[in-house]
Structure formats: C-alpha cells, structure tokens
Amino acid sequence: MAPDSNSVLLVVDVQNGFLPGGSLAVPDGDAVIPVINALGRHFAQVVLTQDWHPPGHISFASSHPGRAPFETVELAYGPQVLWPDHCVQGTQSAELAAGLDLPQAQMIIRKGCHPGVDSYSAFREADRTTRTGLAGYLRERGIETVWCVGLATDFCVAWSAIDAAEAGFRTIVIEAACRAIDTGGSLAKAWADMERGGVTRMPGTAFG
Fold first, then answer.
1. Which of 88, 151, 158, 203 is deepest in the core (most CB within 10 A)?
2. What does the alpha-carbon distance between residue 191 and residue 189 come to, in Å, rounded to a whole number?
3. Is the confidence at residue 126, as pLDDT, over 70?
C-alpha cells in the first residue's frame, strides 16, 4: 500500500489540548507529530481537522452539574462521553500543534462547533445527520483513498475513518501515527468497529 495522486492524508485533531500538558491529553500524543510530518512528504493533498468548541459545549462535564469527566450521559442524539473543557474556540488549547510541518495542507475542517452536539468525525456530527462537507470536497478533488492519522485513535480518528469508508472512500488508518485515550475498553471497541466498517489497519509507516 502506498499513497497516489488520488490519496489524501487526513490529520485528525493534533492540537495542544490533546498533547501532554493539555486539558484532555492523550498519552504519548506528541509522539505522532514527527511521524505525521514524515508521512506528509508522501502526500500532495493534506486535510487537517480541528476540534473547535464554543464555551459551555454540551460534551464538557462542566456543562452537566454533578457529572465528572469520562462519565457517559444520554443526550438527544445518543450516548455522550463527558470531557474536560478542551479546544475552546480561539484558545491556546484549540491551536494546532506548533511542531506540525505540513505546508501543503489546503483545508482545515473545524468540528464540534455547534454547542448542542459533539462531533468526533471529520465527516459527520454525532447526531449522524449533520455533514461537515468534507466528503463532497474530497470527491470534487478526485480523492479515492483517505489515510487517517492523529488523535485520538479510539474517538475522532475511528469515527472519521468509519465515516470515510461509509462515504465510499478506501480508508486506511496508520496505527503508528495515532495514539488513543483508551477509556473503558474504547480502543479495542474502536478497532473492532473500524474492521466491521471496512477500514484497513496499517500497523507501520513504511509504504510498499
């Protein structure tokens, strides 16, 4: 497997809030940055995603009195894990990691912008009906294969990969360029869900 002119590197949520020291730090999250930079040299087309929450977002535990981060509540659109406040619009937490070196990136998808619904996926919000427009953008650019990397494997990467495959793109997750939160067995579930969804798991980073 190797990228071609009809491939895109989808870099998911490599933001300060998910790096060591961030309010929702993914263990070893900063280790993906040099790996992603090296991978990026193989891609002419790169898309970045950014969690971009308004203050008081429904996914924040602080928006639910008596609830703590990592608890799950039932919302109108289904179960929702509650998170520490993170990646609030315009804050340092929401900024892309300074070490990312992907000058050829032509698009940033900002997600989780609506106060009443979360959005793990780069393609579709958690209500599973509101679209971001990314699928249409990729089709108009002639993209056939989506290579997914970033943070976190078990949430935003997995949901983005599953939705990419459902939208008809060949979809590959490069495991070495991702890191997981892994709360309550979420990582194992995510890999199982991705396999059922037709996503290819690529353990290493060497293209053959």
1. 151
2. 6
3. yes
